């Protein structure tokens, strides 16, 4: 039995990448908007772009924030402190204030409309209606 080896050399075509220069013309508005939207939508996680009036857009990488477990009781204490510091009122008190305000508004509106109607009727000259004779049966 014969055993043979064969080695051959053949050219291999490998692609190479280079940036192709396009025309020297300026991109149109639609193309600029489209490219900017594509970059915003496809940006990596935790990346953001912030733009304020009169300033150039700034790009940031948001730091990774680890999840931090908070005890329920500590969270409630924190919420109550924030409510107290900001002058918040209990929900039941606010509901009652809204109801009272609504009642007061409706009473004033009713009184106003009644006064308007009374003024309209009192300022008009009254016409006398003919007297009817009693109905005989």
Tell me, rounded to a whole number, the average pLDDT: 81
Order of helices and strands: HEEHH
Q: What is the subunit organization of this protein?
A: single chain
Broad shape: elongated
Strand order across the largest sheet: 1-2
* Radius of gyration over all CA atoms, rounded: 41 Å
Helix percentage range: 40-55%
The major pleated sheet works out as: 2 strands, antiparallel
Beta-strand share of residues: 5-15%
Query: Could you give the distance between the termini?
Result: 145 Å
Instruction: Output the structural class.
Output: mainly alpha
Q: Uncertain regions: pLDDT < 50 for 5+ in a row?
A: none
Number of strands: 2
Tally of individual helices: 3
């Amino acid at each position: 039995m014969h055993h043979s080896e064969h080695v051959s050399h053949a050219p291999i075509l490998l692609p190479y990448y280079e940036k192709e220069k396009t025309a020297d013309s300026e991109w149109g508005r639609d193309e600029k908007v489209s490219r900017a939207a594509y970059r915003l939508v496809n940006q990596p996680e935790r990346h953001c772009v912030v733009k304020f009036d009169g300033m150039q857009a700034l790009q940031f990488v948001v730091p990774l924030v680890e999840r931090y477990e908070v005890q329920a009781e500590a969270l409630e204490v924190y919420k109550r402190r924030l409510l107290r510091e900001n002058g918040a009122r209990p929900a039941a008190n606010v509901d009652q204030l809204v109801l009272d305000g609504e009642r007061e508004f409706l009473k004033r509106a009713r009184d106003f409309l009644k006064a308007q109607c009374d003024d309209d009727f009192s300022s008009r000259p009254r016409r006398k209606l003919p007297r009817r004779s009693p109905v005989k049966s």
